[in-house]
Amino acid sequence: MKWTKFGSTAAIYLVLLLGALLTLGPFLLSILTAFKTREQFAQQSALSWPDPFTVENFAQLLTGPAQFGRAIVITVLAAMLILVGQLICSILAAYAFARVDFPGRQVLFWVYLSTLMIPPVVLVVPLYLMMTEAGLRNSFWSLVLPFAFASPYAIFLLREYFRGIPQELIDAARLDGANTLDVLVEIVVPLSRPIIATLTLITIVSHWNSFMWPLVVTTGTEWRVVTVATASLQSQFNGNWTLVMAATTLALVPLLVLFLLFQRSFVRSITIAGSA
Q: What pTM was estimated for this model as a whole?
């Protein structure tokens, strides 16, 4: 019996180990390649350690004609503005749907939520035409404005979380003279930090990794984002894979730092959602 239990446990850990290797393997390969010269990459095994380590690829990316440093700055600014806009609009809308009584509230909410069923690729052409007519095509604002005013997913997630906040707290605040905005800012938002942190992580990651829309709406290198800049390296530098892997490694670092900063809140929101 003990051997059977031991064998089943070992099999589970083996499957988990294989899954971890398949998941982390590409990242390890990217990092190892980023610290190699083109000669090392051509002559050595892909999984061999760089000997010696070199930062030549990173220096070329940030100071050379690739202008990758500019792409990082543009991506950071766009993601931050989208994040601020989405959080403000989503929190206000979610609170209205969760706690404010007005005619047609449920119908309006479910109609808006149904837009989640629309594939994002369907919106590319209409958004492109709108940006062109507004004179914003190939500009920084064309990267930000289409996504800066809330999202159905964020509103849905926040609404469900807000509904779980005890009504007694809100009633007590209103007895003390708090208005709707006071309740939202001083009670609801502080109690919702875990889910807001989760939305922060999801929003930044999704727009940091956005590729199709920036590729369509911008041309040239002036407003190129990280994903488009990385893709262009493959043709711009004749398939220099050490340079491409250095770009992917640089693009990965901010996301890892962001996850490390918000991991406690992220795990806490999952725990709270699972116990609800």
A: 0.84
